[in-house]
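Aim 2 progress update. The chain analyzed this quarter is reproduced below.
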Amino acid sequence: MSDSGSGTRYFWCVRHHRAETDADVCAARYVLGPYASVADAEQALERVRQRNEAWEAEDARWTGEER
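Predicted structure tokens:
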């Protein structure tokens, strides 16, 4: 897949564990995105992990249960 700025959108498929484009994307329930590049799509799960950790830390701070 090329991500040469052609306006193509990329998605990360959690079912197939691969980047997909509009042309071959799985059902919405299986994908994260859209992303501007293959590289961004491939980093989707790491980005989700980082955001979840940040939100959990903020929730703990908010409730006084800091870790």
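Residues 49 and 55 are 10 Å apart (CA to CA). The radius of gyration is 15 Å. These observations will guide the mutagenesis experiments scheduled for the next reporting period.
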